[in-house]
Amino acid sequence: MMKTWIKNLIYLLPALVLFSACEPQIDVPAPSSGSVDFSNYLAVGNSLTAGFADGGLYADAQMQSFPYILHQQMNEITSSDFTQPDVKGNGSGYIYLTSLAPTFDEYAPEPDFLTQLEGPFNNLGVPGIRLKDITFNGYGSSPQVNPYFFRMLGGKPATTSYLEIVQESQPTFFTCWMGNNDVLGYATSGGAYGTTGLPVTGLNGLTDPELEFKPLYLALVAALSSNSGKGVLVSVPDITKVPFFTTVPFAAIPLDKATSDALNSMQAFGGYNAALDGLAVLTVITPEEAAKRKVVYKEGSNPVLIQDNDLADLSQPLGAINPALGVYGKTRQATAQDLLLLTASSVIGTLAVPNNPSTAYGVAVPLPDQFALTNMEIGWIKEATASYNTIIKNIASASDLAYLDIDPVLTNVKNGVFENGVKVNSSFIQGGAFSLDGVHLTPRGYAIVANAIIETINTKFNSSLAPVNINDYRAVVFP
């Protein structure tokens, strides 16, 4: 028996050798910088550049920021240092899952989080920074203005601007992912402060594309390129696609028949609807406007009742019909074209008046404006984002810099991407790409961004940076 086995093996060995010789050989290019110099890499941007995740900046996430990942790949070609304004442990504090219900808790900030550090830093990602902040002399003057930039100013005057630090850096290569916060504050506040935002600061507003965004972006690129450095300009993503705006459904009110009938009665919204019809007869509003504002409930899932500040205010005419109706002057039910913010999930169904079930937010009392984006507000966000990206793309072309349109990358993530059998998508918590704040990425999400930048660098500058395996980086941490 043994002899037969050995004989068969002797016959099999030449075949195995022949098969092995016919296997295709994969030609992996040697790491090369191509036409650029990676010896002094600088990353400028906001929280997405800093490695912000789960509502905070903490050590584990910061050490897996996309610039840090990118530099590790550059180090295979050109050995160099990459310094970040390191935080310790829990850093600024961040949220974490306590159960899969889901429930959350929050780690407190480290006691020394606000200790100032001396640079220079290669990662200049500052959470919260907008284009309109880069020339502000005093942006890091105190933690109350911007604690993250304040930390970077150890040894520098409090009046030092972000642009001045960039000018001093003299990078040989850079990535610039700036502009997200020029729309994000407006979006995450539900457009409650209008497109101009708060007085003086313009916080929670939209940055004007031509008057503010374009000249400041030109100044930033000029500073980045002053040492003949090359780099990648990354577009502003469509932020309305992230879980913060896509998780809470517009029809989030489940009702039984008895409750829906009670809400539709003349003592409730039946009387309100009749009042709208009366205003239409009096030509105060059109019949179409009346139909848009009517509130009708049914058994099953129902749209959330929202306040829409873009509607004409009918408080006075409604209040003249019935004083109790005055609070519905800018009210309607949400539609599929509206977006409810993640923060709305903790408000919908709660009581405006304690122990009074007839005052449930989103059902009998309109959900306040800061918890929803209306179709009109979404349109303004998309219009501003498109204008910013046209500016960025044109500047990249004129300056012979690489341009990365990040939106298709994030759209692919939204639809689901596979790597070595592991699926990653933008679903809140389970998807793996976005962290628990619903806006910022997980380390795995940042690895996806790093690979997109690597591909862009290789294409534009004839480099051969190696991509990373995104599964080497974690997703959301489960309890």
List the helices and strands and how they pair.
Elements: H1 2-22, E1 41-45, H2 47-50, H3 59-62, H4 66-74, E2 94-99, E3 103-107, E4 123-125, H5 147-151, H6 162-169, E5 173-177, H7 181-188, H8 209-224, E6 230-234, H9 243-246, E7 253-255, H10 257-264, H11 269-281, H12 287-293, E8 300-302, E9 305-307, H13 315-321, E10 331-333, E11 339-340, E12 372-373, H14 375-398, E13 402-404, H15 406-415, E14 417-419, E15 422-424, H16 443-461
Parallel strand pairs: 1-4, 1-5, 5-6, 6-13
Antiparallel strand pairs: 2-3, 7-8, 9-10, 11-12, 14-15
Helix pairs in contact: 4-16, 6-8, 8-14, 11-12
Number of domains: 2
Radius of gyration: 27 Å
Lateral arrangement of strands in the main beta sheet: 4-1-5-6-13
The gross shape turns out to be elongated
Averaged pLDDT: 93
